[in-house]
Every structure is written in structure tokens, then in C-alpha cells.
TrEMBL record:
Compositional bias segments (type: Polar residues): 293-303
Name listed for the protein in its UniProt record: Hydrolase or metal-binding protein
Comp. bias regions, Low complexity: 280-292
Any Pfam family the entry gives: Gp3-like
Superkingdom in the source lineage: Bacteria
Positions of region (Disordered): 270-304
Entries under InterPro entries matching the protein: Gp3-like
Length: 320
């Protein structure tokens, strides 16, 4: 296996609850009140719809044509393999991760290379005070009971979706006796209003049992499916172990293919930031600055990296 390359679940499509729209000549993310399933192919008008998108819309009888539930199964029994979520700070020009942490420890680019450091969460981290460190979650699901290891990926930076999905995964694993991958589940779009949303509806993703299943029925179906898989030689534990090894094969899980999406989702106004400062930096300079702090351009990232280098140098020279 090639070291330094994250081996992640094969992706055959995307699940989103938003879309990119053009406003004043700029592409900006806009939230939606329904799911959309797309392929991984994008053209000038947006992502191409996956055939399952229309198939699922035709199969439902409510919601006025809006797709608000998706029947899914999970690929792994381990919640942490199905949902990958960390605090992530990305380079605003390249989309590459600069610091990724779980609230206890983080992996961070420094002038000395990638280091493992304490992660106090964004609220208490000096590097994250710019507000650009956000939770970033990726949920892998098998849609519509397709018997394959190809998955649809749902990416989110929302606390509501990440918190809800993490709780559901953990609870369903517990009550099913570690048969999470055999449960008949569905993604469900929910709405809520908060003071921060100015009482307007915001939408997040939940994971529930399918509408036509009671808990008892779902548990029995999971046991039956697990028995059938064992009889044909399906090795769920080995699959989980292989996935864990693949995730651990690199310092960061993000692939080059994700970079355009990360730039659009996380930093849609990066051009505005550059124009305000009156300066810009190239990808090459951004990457070189990770190694040589003296050559770091005076952008937001450049200032952060220089401060980080100065802080680390001061800590190394200060008495204990």
C-alpha cells in the first residue's frame, strides 16, 4: 500500500442539502430544503444528477416531489468509520488542510513539518480565532440497499448534522449488538429554528429507522441479514479493519479531488478577502511557506503561520 495516501471508501456519488448559485458573478453556496443526489461529474451549470435521484423521487408519495428521506445502509459496524468528523482549518487559497484536530490532539503543518499538538477546540485555540476552523464531517452510506461497497458521501460543516449523526450511529450500534451495518436506516432532513437563525428554518440531517419499520422489526431484520452474510462468507470485521488501516495510511484524509469542493463550501468569499488586503498568494508560495516561514506571503494564512512559527520558537527557547 502506498504510504501517505488515505484509502477511503469508494465514492460513486454525492448527497447534498444545498447547491451553488451565481450571484453578482460569483458562485456561492445556498442551502436547500431537500436532498439532492449527484454524480461526481460537474459541468458549468452544476453537478450532474445521479439516476437514483429521480428514482427515489418517483418512489415517494409525499413531500410534493421534494426528496427529504433516503433509504440507506451503512458500510461498517464502527460509527467512527461511517462518519469521519474533525475540526479542520484549511488553506484559503489551495483548500489543503493546515490543521485537523478532534478536540484533544491535532495534526498541524508547522515550520518544522507536520506535528501532533494539543487541540483545545476552536473556541480556545489561538490559530482558530479567525473563525476559519470548522467542524468538517463526511458520512459514507450505501443508498437504496445496493449490494456493493460503493458509497454516496454527505459532506457537512454543520454542528447540528454532525452531532445528530454521531449520536444516532453510537446508539444504533449499541442497541443492535454491533450490527450497525445490517440495520435498515434512512437519512432524514429535519428543520429547526434558533435565535442564531433569526427564527428562520435551518435544515440538518438525521439518521433514523425507516418509516415502515419498528425498532423490533429493524433489529430482527439486522440479525437475519447478519446471519445470511455469515453463511455466504461475508467478513464484516475484516472489512472494518481494512477501512481503519486505509484511513490511517495518511496524515490527512483529504484528497486532491475534494479541493475544489472545499474551496466552494468553506471559503466562497476568498477573492473578497484578497481584494480587501490588496494582496494575493499563489499555490506554490502557500505550500513553500509551510517549510520556510520567512517566505510566507502577508495574507491571512501568512500571518497565522508566522505567528505560529514565532510561538513555537519562543516555546523551544524558554526555560521550563
Amino acid at each position: 500500500m502506498i504510504k501517505g495516501l488515505a484509502i477511503t471508501p469508494p465514492i460513486i456519488g454525492r448527497i447534498s442539502i444545498g447547491k451553488m448559485v451565481e450571484k453578482n458573478g460569483k458562485r456561492l453556496p445556498e442551502k436547500d430544503d431537500q436532498f439532492t443526489l449527484t454524480t461526481q461529474v460537474q459541468h458549468k451549470d452544476g453537478w450532474l444528477l445521479h439516476p437514483l435521484d429521480e428514482q427515489l423521487r418517483q418512489a415517494q408519495t409525499t413531500s410534493n416531489g421534494k426528496l427529504r428521506t433516503i433509504p440507506v445502509r451503512l458500510l461498517f459496524n464502527s460509527p467512527e468509520l461511517n462518519l469521519r468528523a474533525e475540526y479542520s482549518l484549511f488553506d484559503r487559497q489551495t483548500g489543503r488542510p493546515l490543521c485537523v484536530g478532534n478536540g484533544e490532539t491535532c495534526r498541524r503543518y508547522t515550520p518544522q513539518g507536520i506535528q501532533q499538538l494539543p487541540c483545545p477546540s476552536p473556541e480556545a485555540c489561538d490559530l482558530a480565532r479567525t473563525g476559519h476552523c470548522k467542524p468538517y464531517g463526511r458520512l459514507h452510506v450505501v443508498v437504496n440497499d445496493e449490494e456493493d461497497i460503493g458509497t454516496f458521501i454527505f459532506r457537512t460543516t454543520g454542528f447540528n448534522s454532525i452531532r445528530t449523526l454521531a449520536a444516532r450511529l453510537s446508539y444504533y450500534q449499541a442497541i443492535s449488538g454491533d450490527l450497525l451495518a445490517c440495520l435498515p436506516l434512512q437519512l432524514k432532513l429535519r428543520g429547526k429554528s434558533t435565535t442564531q437563525s433569526h427564527r428562520s428554518a435551518i435544515y440538518y440531517v438525521d439518521l433514523t429507522l425507516r418509516d415502515n419499520h419498528t425498532l423490533a422489526e429493524a433489529l430482527q431484520q439486522a440479525k437475519t441479514l447478519n446471519q445470511q452474510r455469515q453463511e455466504i462468507g461475508f467478513q464484516q470485521q475484516a472489512l472494518d479493519q481494512a477501512a481503519q488501516a486505509g484511513f490511517n495510511n495518511a496524515q490527512f484524509e483529504f484528497s486532491e479531488e475534494e479541493i475544489p469542493e472545499l474551496l466552494e463550501e468553506f471559503y466562497p468569499n476568498v477573492d473578497d478577502d484578497n481584494s480587501v488586503q490588496g494582496q494575493s498568494s499563489s499555490t506554490t508560495n502557500t505550500l513553500n511557506s509551510s517549510i520556510n516561514p520567512d517566505s510566507t506571503p502577508k495574507t491571512t494564512n501568512g500571518v497565522l503561520k508566522q505567528k505560529l512559527g514565532q510561538r513555537l520558537q519562543a516555546q523551544s527557547t524558554s526555560p521550563n
